[in-house]
Structures
1.
Amino acid sequence: MPKPSVSSELVSDCSRCFGLCCVALPFAASSDFAVDKRGGTPCGNLLEDFGCGIHPRLRVSGFTGCTVYDCFGAGQKVSQETLGGTTWRDSPDVAREMFAAFPVMRQLHELLWYLEESLGVRVAEQLRPDLAALRDATLRLTEQSADVLAGLDVGEHRDRVNGLLLQVSERFRGQAPGRGRNHHGADLVGAKLAGRDLRGANLRGAWLIGADLRKADLRWADLIGVDLRGADVRGANLSGSLFLTQFQVNAARGDAGTMLPATLTRPSHWA
Ligand code: SF4
């Protein structure tokens, strides 16, 4: 089982962010957002103090996507460190730099999330020096200026990280009783998997949109990149899974009976 060892700097803290996801990112009118918005323009619901004017009513107002999104702490990092506390309202140049750096920082923080989780995996002990080196290299990238960040091609670095995460995954899944199934990249949209034993399954990049996972057992399963939008995880055991993120949890439909890793928070919109 992974230990809950992820840094608090990888947990989003909106109180230290200048509402970057509400400004920098575009969104299209859909079931997730009530309106269209171009990237780089503030959402009409954003307040002067960077809070959300409809925060308690987001879901009933058609902004479900806002209750799902998670930046892995990239917002506060760019706001407070990369741009040193200067806000996008202060100057168009700062705004341009901030909005370009934010999505890159989010990718880097997501990689840091997986690397830090991996460092807590006991059976991956032999990989720790390599994991720590890549974690430190990723951290150094996050400390670059906004201009450098904006021009960064994260792809090559991500491939290096992913190669190591795969090795962690194999060791981790190997602890599961029985032989975990391989559903890598599988189309499991709407699949009926209630009560299934998915312990040790390789679900990397699988599509589980709207799947029925009620009371499924996902311990020792690798959930990196799994699309859990609308998946029913009521009563499911997701504790002891690998590479699950807050973003995925927020997108799923769970309840008080859903078991989560200690690093993640039960969404307030769950029943
Ligand atoms: S509705 Fe609120 S949380 Fe969503 S983008 Fe607008 S200000 Fe941000």
2.
Amino acid sequence: MSKRIEVNDLNVYYSSFLAVEGVSLEIEPRTVTAFIGPSGCGKSTFLRTLNRMHEVIPGARVQGEVLIDGNNLYDSAVDPVLVRRQVGMVFQRPNPFPTMSIKENVLAGVRLNNKRMSKADADDLVEKSLQGANLWNEVKDRLDRPGSGLSGGQQQRLCIARTIAVSPEVILMDEPCSALDPISTLAIEDLIEELKQEYTIVIVTHNMQQASRVSDKTAFFNIAGTGKPGKLIEYDDTTTMFSNPSVKATEDYVSGRFG
Ligand SMILES: Nc1ncnc2c1ncn2[C@@H]1O[C@H](COP(=O)(O)OP(=O)(O)OP(=O)(O)O)[C@@H](O)[C@H]1O
Ligand SMILES: [Mg+2]
């Protein structure tokens, strides 16, 4: 189920603005990869190219290749809707549908995919997804109450349950803990550790402790200045990136001596 990602010489544009230039990297299945780097260096932009969410912005486009298990996501025959099912995304702010129940929130992605399901199958999927997101015990007695009634950390786990309910192969997370308290943050980090047994996970984070706690590999992005494209500066095992990076800029960034 888990998939390998290979990016070859990717340039990412917003109209004529080259936001990210020349990224090549490989991500192994069942690993966690952290993207780090200063604000504006293109972490979110690059992340969104991994499930074709970038191109929903008018004028946005890419050059280069993103291969998932050898298949280029950007081949003209590929349906972006299928790509987004295969490569799920969790956002910075938990975004449950406020008027929907907890249960319907979990099923929202599956329903979008038009899957007709018996009530028993739906109930099973809800339980399995909430178990997978480590939320089941906290919500099993109130599945019909609104998702918006949960705490921020619970809402983020609900969004993760919604993402895994469609059985993706890769999960992208853009600063999934930045709106959460430290306890909820640790709960999400524990969950990422568990999800990695089944999924390939990529997480953007500004929290260096988090990157070093949760990830196997770390990619450091940087920009030379305003209006310049972001670039991948260094990519290696997380322990190497934090203890013995090859590039001075990486060392400055991970040790907090930056700017
Ligand atoms: N919708 C957009 N249209 C035009 N330019 C954009 C758009 N979104 C982002 N950019 C530009 O692309 C560059 C990279 O932005 P991006 O949001 O990817 O950075 P980031 O590394 O995720 O930053 P942060 O850490 O603040 O989230 C920035 O110069 C930004 O202004
Ligand atoms: Mg961002």
3.
Amino acid sequence: MTSPRINHQVRLAKRPEGKATREHWHFTTEPVAEPEEGGVLVQVLSLSLDPAMRGWLNDARSYIPPVAIDEVMRAGGVGRVIASKNPAFTVGDTVYGTLGVQEYILIAQDQVKRNGLVKIDLGVGTIGQWLNVLGMPGMTGYFGLMDVGQPQPGETVVVSGAAGAVGQTVGQLAKLKGCRVVGIAGGAAKCEWVVKELGFDACIDYKAGEGAVRAGLKEHCPKGVDIYFDNVGGEILDHVLAKLARKARIIICGAISQYNNANSVPAAGPRNYLSLLVNRARMEGIVVFDYADRYPVAIAELAGYLKDGRMKSKEDTVVGLDTFPEALNRLFSGENFGKLVLQIENQSAHF
Ligand SMILES: NC(=O)c1ccc[n+]([C@@H]2O[C@H](COP(=O)([O-])OP(=O)(O)OC[C@H]3O[C@@H](n4cnc5c(N)ncnc54)[C@H](OP(=O)(O)O)[C@@H]3O)[C@@H](O)[C@H]2O)c1
């Protein structure tokens, strides 16, 4: 008789004020059950680590409910079906869905849709690419830029978090649409990569010292900024507001510079907002899930670019479920270089 499979999981132990550290998580184990009629058992292969995860830990109203205390941490990921009593899934299928920070997930029939479980084709992209350009960050970049930004050839597009998951798709797509693209990223290595490897026209290193962003925008955006894709918020948003072109569009995608504020400290708002008035400009937020019905269109276009080499997809992979608390924080220190992926290994020896 074979011993039952054991699932290792990471659960939220308590809500952080500021940065989440190891003390905010606890590690649990439980046996893995077989699926009932209509259910699917998935082995988790790789998880997407996202800045939004920090927001899900706050007991606050948002576009999605917070993760509850003792709940397995929410995470999107790619897995393999290892048992199925659901006619839509076969053992061996590779799937994407909300799988959680754990090694296995048993999904009952009525939860399949809620977990967004869909089959993915590894002939179209690697697991990393399905979590990056072809996954949630890529969809965010695509619909934020195309639907809200509406780029026109010759326009100047600025994107912050340029070397990250969303940023790399936005910048490369804007180039493909005929725009002039200026990235903003932390450090010379990231800036060099987005220019030399991804083909951005320029990149501003916001860590290069006081005044670097203001001077960089002046140098690289002489006609002003037509589209700003904002991933970081804070002071950088204020600098870009001061350089808007007439009828500019600002896509509020995220504000990572503010996510680790202690709970009582609200995100710093833009001071230069009157630039919207002067320049007849607009600023609009986007939530990627609103575009779920149209993901196949975006995936087809982006997969085409990956296939013919017009687009690159860079992932930064950390291995092991037990590294989750520290791995997540790489997003906030800027240690990730590309889309941050947590590769899950079935190593019960870890804890
Ligand atoms: N609205 C939506 O539906 C949606 C969906 C997905 C993602 N997002 C948002 O999009 C943004 C980017 O997400 P991602 O997954 O692509 O992450 P990412 O860019 O791959 O990683 C986060 C990056 O943010 C930068 N960063 C961290 N702290 C910063 C600070 N204080 N100031 C400026 N930059 C800082 C770091 O890059 P540097 O080394 O360059 O500093 C870090 O590598 C996040 O704000 C996220 O919440 C929104």
